[in-house]
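wait is this the right file?? whatever heres the structure
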């Protein structure tokens, strides 16, 4: 599909592939960073810079798996949505809020790590058994993003970015890539979503007009539009219908 991203995107992809060829010792260093995310909330901006490129390189730099195989495992509704999406001019980056957009509930209102889940669309339980639950279509949406190597991103006001990173690292696509790797540019901190989105565009190397943004809070949608991003209100969470509707507006 055609894209309007700058040449910097290709450079980033090359850097990710190069990083994926690093030694196992390099990857051990990544594991130390990831393990540290279990201790305290930390700074969202610092966490983004520490983990983003490393998780992307480690998990997603392998051979592109076959899109047809992934499509065949989708629900009929998912297959129909993908056909609609791939007939349109797609954005360079799909940006998502977290709480009540990707999953139902607020990660910073849970009892915190250690988190656990039985996998994919199942609830993610915090240490006292309270949970957040991915919305129904989210697993398939991330499968598609991963299979087609689309760039996802996170723009969240969570006050516990390390907890959010833990959960995103725990949720996996069918290929085994974590949501943290599929949506590797992350801005998880307070401030206007317009600032989040401008920073994501800068890190990816595209214009804000090359992105779409999904959020359950209307005032964040207004901020997104002010930043020049096609922004879509998801009061009932992320779904295939919202994906198609937003790309139609793009």
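ok assuming it is, sequence goes like this
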């Amino acid at each position: 599909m055609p894209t309007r991203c700058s040449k910097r995107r290709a450079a980033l992809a090359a850097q990710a592939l190069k990083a994926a060829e690093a030694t196992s010792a390099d990857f051990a260093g990544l594991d130390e960073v990831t393990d540290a995310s279990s201790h305290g909330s930390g700074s969202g901006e610092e966490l983004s810079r520490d983990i983003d490129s490393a998780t992307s390189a480690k998990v997603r730099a392998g051979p592109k798996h076959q899109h047809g195989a992934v499509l065949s495992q989708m629900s009929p509704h998912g297959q129909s949505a993908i056909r609609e999406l791939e007939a349109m001019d797609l954005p360079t980056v799909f940006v998502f809020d977290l709480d009540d957009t990707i999953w139902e509930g607020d990660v910073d209102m849970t009892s915190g790590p250690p988190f656990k889940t039985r996998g994919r669309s199942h609830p993610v339980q915090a240490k006292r058994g309270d949970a957040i639950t991915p919305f129904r279509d989210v697993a398939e949406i991330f499968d598609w993003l991963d299979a087609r190597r689309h760039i996802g991103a996170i723009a969240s006001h969570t006050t516990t970015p390390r907890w959010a990173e833990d959960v995103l690292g725990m949720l996996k696509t069918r290929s085994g890539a974590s949501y943290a790797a599929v949506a590797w540019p992350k801005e998880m901190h307070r401030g206007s979503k317009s600032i989040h989105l401008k920073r994501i565009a800068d890190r990816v190397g595209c214009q804000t007009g090359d992105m779409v943004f999904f959020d359950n809070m209307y005032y964040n949608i207004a901020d997104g539009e002010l930043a020049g991003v096609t922004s879509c209100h998801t009061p009932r969470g992320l779904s295939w219908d919202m994906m198609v509707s937003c790309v139609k507006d793009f």
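Confidence is low (pLDDT under 50) at residues 1-42, 53-59. so i think its the right one actually
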